[in-house]
């Protein structure tokens, strides 16, 4: 079992002299070939990080000491890796990897999903032009990212993903969509999440209030709790279940991906799964220092644990990936934002850094000042795509990519100046992920890379990435306001509630 309660394994790394980035290139002539990994149409460039050969060897030893290989085997074997909830984490089975019985069960559920898509395509119900997908967290972020990233050419329906309980979110969609032609997709693993259920009720009322005779006839439910969906009123033939062992933020590969498969077509969805499977195989089989997710986790842990970086920033130099940072925020922070190890003892080292980011080049004119000259150490990640998605003059894409690469180079090299206000210290780390072209296979591989990197980080830190007990308190408090009144709260909170209630 991993020991996250001792900082011992990290001490050797802390004791190592820190090279400067520019000297690393001179000291290690083979750096480019060792620190770049190409896999599944993605190029991972770790060159501009401070990890030298000795540090990488130490990190590989640390991974071994933390039982990395056994833990990874346990993940793929479908063993219990989510100890606090006593279950496996079987999202890999959704893409055909992992325990044979879990893979077979996932295939059966995918077949059911495909069957319902065929029915909708054949217009046996509908016809639908609009899809209103209602869900939150893992039941919304993945589908929203995928449709936004890949929908431009292929999208066959107008899709809206609504997560916020703020009525504005739904109202905007109601104003745009035709109720008679709208398929309502209610996505909730538990089918109890308050925001989703309230939004779903309001969507039904909107249909009923606008002349739809059988509102439930236009509802599809995606859930691991099919009984609750039946109880709520959805016809069993339009409930697409998925396994309880698939975590919410890892669920886009399951029936939660239904709007993706419907909007982009079944072939695209299957290709997405195949791309993810290719990355899974790489993660399972590649040696530690040629293993992209593990190498990325080494970088993450080095900066978070050894160098004390509190955040990491991800900039997508591609409009199609604008929703990548919020997707990663849930994946990384809900998974690894923990204060105790697997055994419940307090961590001796920091856990996940805060993930933040944005879109380039916009972010250059907003937050990059801090990255170049601020006092915080922020490891930066650039994500860019070689093939443009637009049909404009190639000058646009050329400018986009040059900006991206120039930022990484400038963060590293800096620029001296006698005037301290104008000096750039440099030696600021970044890594770059360069994707051949943005298609379902590559995006599947990219998202699987992030999942496995998150898992690898958890193993190195000795924590469970598959539970999220920290979210429960907020849910309980919100419920108790409704059920028990405001007595239990402090004066400030009571006054805020009273002010609103008038
Ligand atoms: O925010 C907590 C959480 O449980 C996430 O893990 C999950 O993705 C989200 O709520 C939605 O949950 P559900 O799919 O059960 O509605």
UniProtKB/TrEMBL annotation:
It catalyses: alpha-D-glucose 6-phosphate = beta-D-fructose 6-phosphate. One of its GO terms (molecular function) is glucose-6-phosphate isomerase activity. Keywords: Cytoplasm, Gluconeogenesis, Glycolysis, Isomerase. One of its GO terms (biological process) is gluconeogenesis. One of its GO terms (cellular component) is cytosol. Its EC number is 5.3.1.9. InterPro entries: G6P_Isomerase (IPR001672), G6P_Isomerase_C (IPR023096), Phosphoglucose_isomerase_CS (IPR018189), SIS_dom_sf (IPR046348), SIS_PGI_1 (IPR035476), SIS_PGI_2 (IPR035482). Pathway: Carbohydrate degradation; glycolysis; D-glyceraldehyde 3-phosphate and glycerone phosphate from D-glucose: step 2/4; Carbohydrate biosynthesis; gluconeogenesis. It is found in: Cytoplasm. Pfam families: PGI. It comes from the Bacteria. It is an enzyme of class 5 (isomerase). The active site is at 334 (proton donor), 365, 475. Its main location: cytoplasm. Catalyzes the reversible isomerization of glucose-6-phosphate to fructose-6-phosphate. PANTHER family: GLUCOSE-6-PHOSPHATE ISOMERASE. Belongs to the GPI family. This is Glucose-6-phosphate isomerase. It comes from Sphingomonas prati. The lineage of its organism: Bacteria, Pseudomonadati, Pseudomonadota, Alphaproteobacteria, Sphingomonadales. The gene is pgi.
């Amino acid at each position: 079992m991993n020991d996250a309660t001792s900082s011992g394994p990290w001490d050797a790394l802390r004791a190592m002299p820190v090279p400067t980035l520019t000297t690393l290139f001179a000291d290690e002539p083979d750096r480019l070939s060792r620190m770049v990994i190409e896999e599944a149409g993605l190029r991972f460039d770790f060159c501009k990080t401070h990890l030298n050969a000795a540090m990488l060897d130490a990190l590989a030893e640390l991974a071994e000491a933390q039982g990395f290989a056994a833990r990874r085997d346990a993940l793929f074997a479908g063993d219990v890796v989510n100890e606090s909830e006593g279950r496996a984490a079987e999202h890999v089975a959704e893409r055909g990897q992992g325990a044979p019985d879990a893979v077979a069960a996932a295939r059966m559920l995918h077949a059911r999903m495909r069957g319902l898509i065929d029915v909708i395509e054949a217009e046996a119900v509908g016809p639908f032009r609009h899809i209103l997908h209602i869900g939150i967290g893992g039941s919304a972020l993945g589908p929203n990212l995928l449709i936004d990233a890949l929908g431009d050419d292929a999208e066959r329906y107008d899709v809206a993903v609504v997560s916020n309980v703020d009525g504005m979110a739904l109202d905007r969609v109601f104003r745009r969509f035709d109720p008679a032609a709208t398929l309502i997709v209610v996505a909730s693993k538990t089918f109890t999440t308050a925001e989703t259920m309230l939004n779903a009720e309001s969507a039904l009322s909107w249909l009923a209030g606008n002349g739809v005779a059988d509102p439930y006839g236009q509802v599809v439910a995606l859930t691991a709790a099919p009984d609750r969906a039946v109880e709520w009123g959805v016809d069993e033939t339009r409930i697409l279940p998925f396994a309880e062992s698939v975590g919410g933020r890892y669920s886009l590969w399951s029936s939660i991906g239904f709007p993706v498969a419907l909007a982009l077509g079944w072939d695209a969805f299957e290709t997405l799964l195949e791309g993810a499977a290719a990355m899974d195989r790489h993660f399972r089989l590649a040696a530690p220092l040629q293993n992209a997710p593990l190498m990325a986790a080494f970088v993450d842990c080095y900066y978070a644990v050894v160098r004390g970086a509190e955040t990491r920033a991800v900039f997508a130099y591609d409009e199609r990936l604008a929703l990548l940072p919020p997707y990663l925020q849930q994946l990384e922070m809900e998974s690894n934002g923990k204060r105790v190890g697997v055994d419940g003892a307090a961590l001796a080292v920091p856990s996940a850094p805060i993930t933040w980011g944005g879109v380039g080049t916009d972010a250059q004119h907003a937050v990059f000042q801090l990255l170049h000259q601020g006092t915080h150490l922020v490891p930066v990640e650039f994500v860019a795509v070689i093939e443009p998605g637009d049909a404009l003059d190639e000058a646009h894409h050329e400018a986009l990519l040059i900006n991206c690469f120039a930022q990484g180079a400038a963060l590293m090299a800096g620029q001296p100046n006698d005037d301290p206000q104008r000096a750039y210290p440099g030696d600021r780390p970044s890594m770059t992920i360069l994707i051949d072209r943005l298609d379902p296979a590559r995006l599947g591989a990219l998202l699987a890379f992030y999942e496995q990197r998150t898992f690898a980080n958890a193993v190195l830190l000795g924590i469970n990435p598959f539970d999220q007990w920290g979210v429960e308190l907020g849910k309980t408090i919100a419920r108790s306001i409704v059920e028990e009144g405001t007595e239990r709260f402090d004066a400030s909170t009571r006054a805020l509630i009273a002010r609103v209630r008038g």
